């Protein structure tokens, strides 16, 4: 894949496009005009210090946060603005949360089938077949009847990924998917994310897993103070960052 | 000792009182069967109102709950039965009891449901909405089941309170269990029918109280 620059891609060709996104919490600006275009099957990794606005940006991408201004497109369809069928659009945007957010009163299978049955109106048998396929793809078909409390953190996060994948989204958002995990459980989740990427999924990932970014990302974006400071392919980004703020961040992360 | 047995545990009088007291029990159960579901539904509606984003709905719900939690149920019941006729609204004893208990129970159920809804982390709603579920679907399939599970002991405790509260219906001469027992007491000049009624309440509610303890232990663990 060729290097994607800041200006590459237009709202009509990119799978996910953010244009001039602004957002404030009260008087405190969190996003100061974000432009970002994620191409089909691209994995874009967002790095940045806490408070840099990266999670807020991600949460704007399915409007769990409402941007104050700017526009977002998914496959050329406008997500922001009035008259958008938000529930319809959200089916195309999978999201994985830091704290998994599995439904504790349902089994792993029930977690995955819920939206298939209630949103896509699938009959139970069909929904369960789809859900089992999704659980198999994250290596948990043998845990289908377990409740979240009976699963490890890593297994819970993989069920959460299956829950999002089962809707066959066109783009997946990952909000610090491994931050709440014990170190020994991180690898399994990253392996699943790698497989999801290999299936051709378009992915926007907010995470601190630098090593994973280096190996798996197509592009790394560095955010600070609500703006994108620098971006590029991981080789160049980590070896020769151009901006002073990026260098300072990377050296802090490396300790 | 014998006098105490005669006055409170007179088997003969209890046996005579039994048919009437059991008939009263039937009325007690009927009131419960009407008032508990109604109160639970009213309470759920008020709880949803009290967490609504719409200010008017929220304030109305909170005002409703505050008013009927503060108003003693006996005062409310007598007002409905004996006060409203002054405004030309005349209700049968059963209708008055139903209305009064509906208002009172709704307020208490509302506070319990409200606590339950607030106990569900916001991430649950976000996860459900991120899969394209509507707000209503999210409530029915994700938020409410967890809310109810989290406050199940409190909901059941409230049911116990309501069963006991139905004895207030005796003041409007509705023939529930206390009313029936009181009637026999006044005819026999003997307290045994009241002991009988008390015993039946105990038999009725004790299993429920054990069940509540069971749920409380399960939630604590």
Overview of the molecule:
The complex is a heterodimer of chains A (255) and B (221). With 255 residues, chain A is an alpha/beta fold. Helix content of chain A is 35%, strand content 24%. Chain A has helices spanning 54-60, 86-90, 108-118, 124-137, 153-165, 183-198, 210-216, 234-239, 244-254; strands at 16-25, 28-38, 43-47, 69-74, 77-78, 93-96, 171-175, 202-206, 219-224, 227-232. In chain A, 47% of the residues are buried. In chain B, 82% of the residues lie in helices and 0% in strands. The model of chain B has no long low-confidence stretch (mean pLDDT 91). Chain B has one domain (2-220): MetI-like fold, CATH 1.10.3720. Classes of the chains: A alpha/beta (255), B mainly alpha (221). Chains A and B meet through helix 2, strand 6, helix 3 and helix 5 of A and helix 6 and helix 7 of B.
What's the short version?
Chain A: This is Amino acid ABC transporter ATP-binding protein. Chain A has 255 residues and is of the alpha/beta class. Chain A contains nine helices and ten strands.
């Amino acid at each position: 894949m060729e290097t994607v620059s800041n200006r590459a891609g237009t709202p009509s060709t990119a799978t996910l496009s953010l244009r001039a996104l602004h957002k404030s919490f009260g008087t405190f600006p969190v996003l100061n005009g974000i432009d970002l275009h994620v191409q089909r099957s691209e994995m874009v990794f967002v790095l940045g210090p806490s408070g840099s606005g990266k999670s807020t940006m991600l949460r704007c991408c399915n409007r769990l946060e409402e941007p104050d201004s700017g526009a977002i497109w998914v496959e050329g369809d406008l997500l922001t603005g009035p008259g958008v069928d938000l529930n319809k659009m959200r089916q195309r945007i999978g999201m994985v949360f830091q704290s998994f957010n599995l439904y504790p009163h349902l089994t792993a299978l029930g977690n995955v089938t819920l939206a298939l049955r209630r949103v896509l109106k699938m009959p139970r048998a069909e929904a369960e077949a789809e859900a089992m396929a999704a659980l198999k793809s994250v290596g948990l078909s043998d845990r289908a009847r377990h409740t979240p409390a009976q699963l490890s953190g890593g297994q819970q996060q993989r069920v959460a990924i299956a829950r999002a994948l089962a809707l066959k989204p066109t783009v997946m958002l990952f909000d610090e998917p491994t931050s709440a995990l014990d170190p020994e459980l991180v690898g399994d989740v990253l392996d699943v994310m790698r497989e999801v990427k290999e299936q051709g999924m378009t992915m926007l990932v907010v995470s601190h897993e630098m090593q994973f970014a280096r190996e798996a990302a197509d592009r790394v974006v560095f955010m600070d103070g609500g703006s994108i400071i620098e971006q590029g392919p991981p080789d160049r980004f980590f070896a020769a960052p151009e901006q002073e703020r990026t260098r300072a961040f990377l050296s802090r992360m490396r300790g | 000792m014998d006098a105490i047995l005669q006055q409170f545990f007179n088997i003969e009088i209890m046996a005579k009182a039994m048919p009437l007291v059991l008939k009263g029990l039937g009325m007690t159960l009927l009131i419960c069967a009407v008032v508990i579901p109604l109160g639970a539904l009213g309470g759920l509606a008020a709880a949803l109102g009290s967490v609504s984003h719409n200010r008017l709905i929220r304030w109305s719900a909170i005002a409703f709950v505050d008013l009927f939690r503060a108003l003693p149920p006996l005062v409310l019941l007598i007002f409905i039965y004996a006060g409203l006729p002054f405004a030309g609204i005349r209700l049968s004893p059963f209708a008055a009891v139903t209305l009064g208990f509906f208002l009172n129970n709704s307020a208490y159920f509302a506070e319990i449901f409200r606590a339950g809804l607030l106990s569900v982390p916001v991430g649950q709603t976000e996860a459900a909405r991120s899969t394209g579920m509507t707000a209503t679907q999210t409530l029915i399939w994700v938020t409410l089941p967890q809310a109810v599970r989290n406050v199940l002991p409190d909901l059941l405790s409230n049911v116990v309170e309501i069963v006991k509260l139905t004895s207030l219906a005796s003041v409007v001469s509705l023939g529930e269990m206390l009313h029936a027992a009181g009637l026999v007491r006044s005819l026999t000049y003997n307290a045994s029918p009241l002991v009988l009624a008390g015993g039946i309440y105990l038999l009725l509610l004790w299993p429920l109280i054990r069940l509540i303890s069971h749920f409380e232990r399960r939630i604590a663990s």
